[in-house]
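INTERNAL TRANSFER SHEET
From: sequence group
To: structure group
Subject: XXLT1 xylosyltransferase

Please process the attached sequence and return the structure record in the designated field. Keep the field labels unchanged so the import script can parse them.
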Amino acid sequence: VIVHDVNELTEKLFPIVEAMQKHFSAGSGTYYSDSIFFLSVAMHRIMPKEITQIIQVDLDLKYKTNIRDLFEEFDNFPEGAVIGIAREMQPVYRHTFWQYRRENPQTKVGEPPPDGLPGFNSGVLLLNLEAMRQSKLYNQLLEPAMVQKLTEKYHFKGHLGDQDFFTMVGMEHPELFHVLDCTWNRQLCTWWKDHGYSDVFDQYFQCEGEVKIYHGNCNTPIPED
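Return from structure group:
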């Protein structure tokens, strides 16, 4: 077991992610402490080179299968993919991309699966650090000018940290992501159902198959066995 000091990590992270924090943080401006919410985005830059793969997970999860099975998903990454991540299961990005959607009525951005692009949820992340290090495209997308360009194109202002960055990049470059089945990150939060999206909510929220990991996001109780 290796314990990493949060302050040391934040010190390394801050210069890499400072530019994106103003676009994807809840607060106004850029807070040094917020950098930790972007850890996954630049993990390949701050972890020792000998670490080639990492699974990063939220704390509000309940495992129904052996986590080792999740590691096998790394073997399913298509060429060019650097991150494994499941889709967001609420219409949060239908909401966030409202202006882009209005200007581009035929877009798949923010639309529900299976044909739409609902965005990602970062509760369960497979980070192929070696692929992230070697991907010229991914590292270009971390540059402040590229972040600015994409946020302007999509009129994007988020508050969910790394999840917002991956979602926005995924709209532009889906080839960087291996989409995990919803059963690996079965989100339970239904906040958006009661906040203007009850008519389309179930199109995002449905998940067929035996759940492997429950995600009790927004403090939602996880079912007992």
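Handover comment: The first helix runs from residue 6 to 24. The longest strand covers residues 120-128.
Transfer complete.
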